[in-house]
Amino acid sequence: MSDCIFCKIAAGEIPADKLYEDDEVVAFWDLDPQAPKHFLVIPKSHLRDSSALSEEDAALIGRIIRIGAHLAKENGLDDYRFVVNNGASAGQTVFHFHLHVLGGRVMGWPPG
Ligand code: 5GP
Ligand code: ZN
């Protein structure tokens, strides 16, 4: 999608501090971190949110979770939180599916 900031990051059209990249996934540090370590893992293909996922995306989303877990460990996180916001009132501000990985501090529950 031409006006999507995460599509532009995925395409290398705007810069991001990347931790990982392959043919279908990219991970980069969040611009406005909400924890000492906070990065995002996204599909390169544009998917709006979880409701846009089809059966064919199941393996891709599984890879995103595995990559998030691997990168968390690689960056010294034993404990961390995965977050996917879906819809504006749930906190989604960028409408391209992304997995938040947050760690390095104690997390509260329930989330705000
Ligand atoms: P959401 O609120 O949609 O769940 O999360 C979007 C996240 O993307 C936010 O944590 C925000 O700080 C981050 N973000 C928005 N624009 C950019 C950007 O251009 N670069 C990076 N690295 N992060 C961004
Ligand atoms: Zn996009």
From TrEMBL:
Keywords: Hydrolase. PROSITE patterns: HIT_1, HIT_2. The keyword Ribonucleoprotein does not apply. Its EC number is 3.6.1.17. Residues 5-112 form the HIT domain. InterPro entries: Histidine_triad_CS (IPR019808), Histidine_triad_HIT (IPR001310), HIT-like (IPR011146), HIT-like_sf (IPR036265). This is Bis(5'-nucleosyl)-tetraphosphatase (Asymmetrical). One of its GO terms (molecular function) is bis(5'-nucleosyl)-tetraphosphatase (asymmetrical) activity.
